[in-house]
Write a structure and sequence with these properties.
The chain has about 325 residues and is of the alpha/beta class. It contains 11 helices and 8 strands. It folds into 2 domains: about 1-215 and about 310-315, Spore Coat Polysaccharide Biosynthesis Protein SpsA, Chain A (Alpha-Beta Complex); about 235-305. The chain is about 50% helix and about 15% strand. It binds uridine-5'-diphosphate and magnesium ion.
Length: about 325
Amino acid sequence: MEAARNGRLYCVVPCYNEEEVLPETSRRLGEKLRALMEAGQIAPESRIIFVDDGSKDATWQLIEGLHAQDPLFQGVKLSRNRGHQNALLAGLMTAMLHCDMAISMDADLQDDVNAIDEMLARYREGADIVYGVRSSRETDTAFKRSTAQGYYRLMQGMGADLVYNHADFRLMSVRALEALSEFKEVNLFLRGIVPMIGLRTAIVTYERGTRYAGESKYPLFKMLQFAMEGITSLSVRPIRLITGLGITIFLVSILVLIYCLVRYAQGQTIQGWTTTVLSVWAIGGLTMISLGVIGEYIGRIYLETKARPRYIIEEYLADR
Ligand code: UDP
Ligand code: MG
């Protein structure tokens, strides 16, 4: 058991157009892993997998270069851009076949490389999943900070189990990875699925830095899309809310009907054109919103039933 706990560590790093940060990231991560190997904390067969998520710049050429120089670095090339979550999954599923534990982290050095030591310590104590949790959000813009906070609250309100201020910097044992591989959903939101696995978990806090270089690959629109993905993949509560809303409005309309009939019987038919038009619009709007939300779910059901592959690996650069 002890030997297995000082096992083969695979670091999985998804990269989309990251040519600006990759040289520095590989240098720092490489140094870290070598130090850990020398200290006997991890096995010499440990590796770093860079997953190229269909980059348009020289990212893959850089990864090829790293691999040629040093077998410590491996590369997985996806056939096209599939998004952060799918790229991460591709890397983790590749690592699963060779590792004892894997750590996922961003390419831009926002995740602190030095938190790896503590993650390994928790792993050695028996944890199967170690969440990297950022200690503060000082490096974020006020906008990102408040939207993120609101989002966690919203998710909690919808009954989804998220680890507060944890993104995708985490260690998973091979056992946890195998459990993850059983989740077949196309609508992938890893930070929501991983807590569902259970097993023994631990938390390591770290200071999240700013992006080392280059631009965020998550512009506002993509961020909103990701947020929507999270809600619809983890919760059906919006649909229930809509049902509740519909029932309420229906009850109100019955009251209005009775009121109208009474007025009619009294011979005082109201000329309430305004109210009529207004209510038509209000209810029309609500109906439209409701259909939209339901449509979101149906669209996702459609994708899930097709069960298309979540990623396609074009090439895997590995020494073994
Ligand atoms: N990423 C990816 N595919 C994409 C978008 C992003 O693999 O389509 C990777 C990116 O290279 C980085 C990580 O996902 O390693 C997080 O992206 P980023 O740092 O741009 O997001 P932010 O930190 O701004 O939320
Ligand atoms: Mg980043």
